[in-house]
Specification:
The protein is an all-alpha fold. The chain has helices at about 1-65, 70-75, 90-120, 125-135, 140-160, 170-195, 195-205, 210-220, 225-240, 240-245, 265-275, 280-310; strands at about 80, 85. A hairpin with a 6-residue loop joins strand 1 and strand 2.
C-alpha cells in the first residue's frame, strides 16, 4: 500500500516536471517570436508613413505640372473654382495661422495655470478629480466643438463685437484653444511633477513662497516638457478640421482681420473632398498640394518640439 502511494507521488512529481518543461518551451518560443512580431509592426508603421508621404509627393508634383510653383507660393489669391483658377496658398496659410495663434493665446495661459495648480497646489484627491475632468475635453468629438463655436460662442461674441461675421476666425480659434488646453495642462503637469522634491524644499528653505517656487524653480526646471507640450498642442491646432470647417467659413482671405470669414487648409480639403471637383482635374490635385503644405507645417512643428526637448532637457 505504501509502495503504491510512493509510486503515485513519484508519477505526480514527474508530471509536474514535464509540465514545467512544456511551459518553459512555450516561453522560449514566445521570447524568440515577440521581437520579430514587434519588428514587423514597427516596419508596418514606417511603411505606412512612407506610403502616405509618397502619395502626397507624387500627386503634388502632378499639380505643379499644371500650376507654377511660384504662383502657388507667392500669389495672394486662392480661387480654384474660377476660370481661370488662381492657386495662391497664402490666404489658406493666413487663415490657418490666425486660428492657431488665437488658439495658442487661449490655451497656453489656461493650460499652464492648470498645470501649476495641479502640480504645486492641489492635493492628491483634488488632482485625481480635476485631471480626468480636464482630459474629458480631449475626448469630445470635434464636430461637437464646431457646432458649439457656431451656435454659442459666435452669438455671444457678436453681442460684444457687432461687426463680427457669422463665420469668422475668432470663434473657432477660441474653441480650438479650449480643445487643446487639456493637452498642454496634462503634459505640462507631468513635466512639472517630474521635478525633484528636493529642489522645491531647497527653495522654500531659502525663504521663497510657494508661488515663487512654482515660477522661478519648477517652471524653468520643466521648461523642456512644457515647451514641447505647447508645440505639440499648436500642431494639433494647425491640423484641426471640423471646427474651422463648421464655424470658420469658406472664404480665403489674406488679412489680419479675425472678425471676417476665413478658410484654412484643412477646411479647403474638406470642401473639395465633398465632390466639388472631378477626379483628375487641377482642383482635385490641389488637395494634395495643400495637404503636403499642411504636412510640412506639422512636420516642422514636431521637429521643433523634439529639438527643444533635447536642447533644454534637464538631468536630475
Amino acid at each position: 500500500m505504501i509502495k503504491q502511494e510512493l509510486k503515485e507521488n513519484t508519477l505526480s512529481v514527474q508530471e509536474l516536471i514535464a509540465e514545467k518543461k512544456k511551459k518553459n518551451n512555450i516561453s522560449k518560443v514566445l521570447e524568440k517570436m515577440m521581437p520579430k512580431v514587434l519588428l514587423i509592426t514597427a516596419i508596418l508603421s514606417i511603411l505606412t508613413t512612407l506610403g502616405i508621404l509618397f502619395t502626397l509627393i507624387i500627386e503634388t508634383f502632378t499639380f505643379f505640372e499644371r500650376v507654377n510653383i511660384k504662383e502657388f507660393l507667392t500669389s495672394k489669391s486662392w480661387y480654384p473654382f474660377s476660370d481661370p483658377g488662381s492657386f495662391g496658398i497664402m490666404p489658406l496659410v493666413s487663415g490657418t495661422l490666425k486660428v492657431t495663434i488665437i488658439a495658442g493665446i487661449v490655451a497656453v495661459p489656461i493650460g499652464l495655470a492648470s498645470a501649476i495648480f495641479l502640480s504645486e497646489y492641489a492635493s492628491d484627491r483634488t488632482r485625481r478629480i480635476i485631471k480626468p475632468i480636464l482630459e474629458v475635453l480631449a475626448g469630445i468629438p470635434t464636430i461637437v466643438y464646431g457646432f458649439f463655436a457656431l451656435t454659442f460662442i459666435t452669438p455671444l461674441l457678436r453681442s460684444i463685437i457687432p461687426s463680427l461675421e457669422m463665420f469668422n476666425a475668432l470663434s473657432p480659434g477660441i474653441v480650438i484653444g479650449i480643445m487643446i488646453t487639456p493637452m498642454i495642462a496634462s503634459l505640462s503637469e507631468d513635466a512639472m511633477s517630474a521635478v525633484p522634491r528636493s529642489m522645491r524644499e531647497g527653495a522654500l528653505a531659502m525663504g521663497s513662497t510657494k508661488f515663487e517656487v512654482a515660477l522661478k524653480v519648477v517652471l524653468p526646471a520643466a521648461v523642456s516638457g512644457i515647451v514641447s507640450s505647447i508645440v505639440l498642442a499648436l500642431s494639433r491646432a494647425i491640423g484641426e478640421t471640423m471646427i474651422v470647417a463648421v464655424a470658420g467659413g469658406s472664404t480665403p482671405n489674406l488679412s489680419f482681420n479675425v472678425t471676417e470669414s476665413i478658410q484654412t487648409m484643412t477646411a479647403y480639403i474638406v470642401q473639395v473632398s465633398q465632390g466639388d471637383a472631378g477626379y483628375g482635374t487641377t482642383i482635385y490635385y490641389s488637395i494634395y498640394a495643400v495637404g503636403f503644405t499642411l504636412f510640412l507645417f506639422t512636420f516642422l512643428m514636431n521637429l521643433l518640439a523634439q529639438y527643444i526637448s533635447r536642447r533644454f532637457r534637464e538631468e536630475y
